[in-house]
Design goal:
With 232 residues, this protein is of the alpha/beta class. It has seven helices and twelve strands. A hairpin with a 2-residue loop joins strand 9 and strand 10.
Length: 232
């Protein structure tokens, strides 16, 4: 089997009801339930104008830097509701996808969204789309179509490891990856955290919050509180 030119058609997928359970929960709340180490680098940002969160199982794509042959293969093999996650080996010089390919993914494949660790183009139209599109930047420079590349293998996207079938959640703050095996444990924690966080926001707004723990923490960590101005 030629490593670097493999296309796996099958994945271990999370329960669809489990995936649906993450809808409506902010990515930040879920991330806080995962020790805050699951968020993709903020270089990957929302480029379109969806009216809903992005959530779905990862369909992973590993491309050679600046090459989109493997992404064309993903057009053939991804499924409705997938989040296509593309590892571009850190390249920022060439766009990997534009309106033509995006149209096929949106209208024919009906994916839940796309996350690209690299640039896109045709932003003048894509920025108004309801399909969640995450990328690093834009450039008119197009990609090559030579390969190699792989589908449904582990990838690195936004400095986060993503395995096929992991749950990908994105909102205006950015994108997180919830490992498929951990998702059943994380969901109820995230749901409870979200409810508590809403209640906490109300208390902070009303000034009904005890911040004495801040004083204790500053003292324990050796901060000096000086009742004077700074003097160079």
């Amino acid at each position: 089997m030629p490593v670097g030119k493999r296309i796996y058609l099958k994945r271990k997928l999370p329960d669809p009801e489990l995936v649906k359970g993450f809808e409506g929960i902010p990515a930040s709340n879920v991330a806080d339930c995962m020790e805050r180490n699951c968020a993709m680098n903020p270089r990957i940002r929302l480029m379109s104008s969806p009216d809903h969160e992005m959530v779905g199982p990862a369909f992973t794509v590993h491309t050679r830097a600046g090459d989109n042959l493997a992404i064309y293969a993903a057009l053939r093999f991804c499924h409705e509701g997938d989040v296509v996650v593309i590892d571009n080996e850190g390249d920022t010089t060439r766009s990997l996808i534009g309106e033509v390919m995006m149209s096929y993914l949106r209208d024919q494949k009906k994916i839940a969204g796309i996350v690209i660790d690299g640039p896109i183009r045709d932003i003048d139209n894509l920025q108004n789309w309801k399909l969640p599109i995450y990328a690093t930047s834009t450039t008119p420079g197009g990609p090559y179509k030579e390969g190699p590349g792989e589908l449904n293998v582990p990838v690195s996207c936004g400095n986060v490891s993503v395995n096929p079938g992991d749950v990908i959640l994105g909102d205006p703050d950015g994108v997180i990856c919830i490992p498929r095996k951990d998702a059943p444990e994380i969901l109820p924690k995230a749901q409870a955290f979200h409810k508590k966080d809403d209640e906490k926001a109300v208390l902070f707004s009303q000034g009904k919050v005890d911040l004495s723990w801040v004083d204790d923490s500053l003292k324990n960590k050796g901060f000096d509180i000086i009742d004077d101005i700074y003097r160079p």
